[in-house]
Amino acid sequence: MRRPGPSLLLLLTLGIPCLSGCDENDTGVPGPDIRGVITSLARAGSGDQSAVVGTLRVEGPQMADTRFAKAVVAIDHDTRIFQREPAGRSRVPFEALRLGDKVEVHFAGPVSVSFPVKGTAGEILIVVHLALPEAPAVEAGDPYPPEFAGTQDGQMRAPPDRLPLPLRDVRAGPQEHFDRAVFEFDGDTVPGYRVEYVAQPVHCGSGQPVEIGGGAWLQVTMNPAEAHNAQGGVTVGQLRRRPNLKAIRELQETCDLEGDVTWVLGLAGRRGYRVFELANPPRIVVDVRR
Fold it and tell me: Which of 37, 54, 111, 143 has a beta carbon 3.0–4.6 Å from 43's, enabling a disulfide?
């Protein structure tokens, strides 16, 4: 029998890299192929004879434990869909998926080499239901939800006395009567914040004006916070988003300096809004009335 050569022995010793679906994080547990927000969602038509139940498009920053930033995901009858719960997770049907939800997708088998990549999901985990009305408890007579007058005055929360909290995700999605922006953090709480309308968005370092789409600008400043890692890399992916919703047309970062992180929401016009906090994971939520 022919003995393996040195090159083959080296490959066997080090391990041959997987071609699909075998990335692992630092715990040794395989990470998802993509983690991001559902930006489009469609159920297969009744006349569709294929095994596909529906398709969705997922977009999110490529992280150390993920493989892709954008993907078109097919869902078939073998796809397992779960929803994160306080004590674990539970199995849910296709109908539980909603536009704007944050999900993790594990592909079943290989994916195409197109951009965005295309493949069939073996498992989907709904991490956060952005599309649900995650609002504080309403009081008698409060018209929210589904409608609210909100405020156009500045709102603020004093900053906690701690090191900067890493901003790990920024997203926006539609609701029935308002649009929602969410700022998600690592840690056990949110930083302090100041939300207010500004006449002109500017870069915090240079003071130069920033062009952001819309007819009014709602500025969200968070402190102590940071949107970069120790190597200077961005922790939230794209720093400019154009969801082009009815109220929120654009979101853009204008500051990540000395513990201050600022994002500006470019709105269709000056609207009433409200801001509140959510836990597990910590989030600052801004709802803008349409």
Answer: 54
